[in-house]
Amino acid sequence: MARYWLLKTEPSAYSFEQLRADRTTPWTGVRSFQARNNMMEMRAGDLGLFYHSSIAEPAAVGVCKVVREAYPDFTQFDRASEYFDGRAKPGKPIWLMVDVEYVEAFEHPVTLARMRAEPRLVGMALLRRGQRLSVQPVMPHEWKIVLELSRR
């Protein structure tokens, strides 16, 4: 059974339009243990809300799909990368990534404000105070509600 996720990115770092052009991408640079652990739970075929953060109107803008399960994030070993981690060793990586594929853009992006205004999403991880994870689970009923909002 497929699970659902929310994957956050700043569009200036990697946008949904870039994913549409690339078709697939490794989800690199995650440096939160909890977000990493969430990626360890992801399975090929799981679906994700692609979420643009740190912009005037943060929003879920489309759907992506996990096409490769967690494996070592190469940026942790790259000294030139902003995501380099000197504690990580090729035989003992700390950070992981998954590969995601473009599925579809939302007809209407679902803004954070719109999600906050939807009473049925009150328990959603994204809306909880202090929840800043770049990769977080989405419950099946929340997934359906966000897709419903994207169509109107």
Task: Tell me what you see in this structure.
- There is one protein chain.
- The chain starts with a strand and ends with a helix.
- It has a six-stranded mixed β-sheet.
- The radius of gyration is 15 Å and the shape is globular.
- The protein has one domain (4-150): ph1033 like fold (Roll).
- The mean pLDDT is 95.
- It is built from four helices and six strands.
- By secondary structure, it is an alpha+beta fold.
Structural class comes to: alpha+beta
Going across the major beta sheet, what is the strand order? 2-5-4-3-1-6
CATH architecture: Roll
Total number of strands: 6
Number of domains: 1
In CATH, the homologous superfamily goes by the name ph1033 like domains
**Topology as a string of helices (H) and strands (E):** EHEHEEEHEH
Count of separate DSSP helical elements: 4
CATH class categorisation: Alpha Beta
The fraction of residues assigned to DSSP E strands is: 25-35%
Cα shape: globular
Biggest β-sheet description: 6 strands, mixed
Rounded average pLDDT: 95
Uncertain stretches of 5 or more adjacent residues: none
| CATH topology name | ph1033 like fold
Helix content: 10-25%
* Radius of gyration computed on alpha carbons: 15 Å
Task: Report how far the terminal alpha carbons are from each other.
Answer: 27 Å
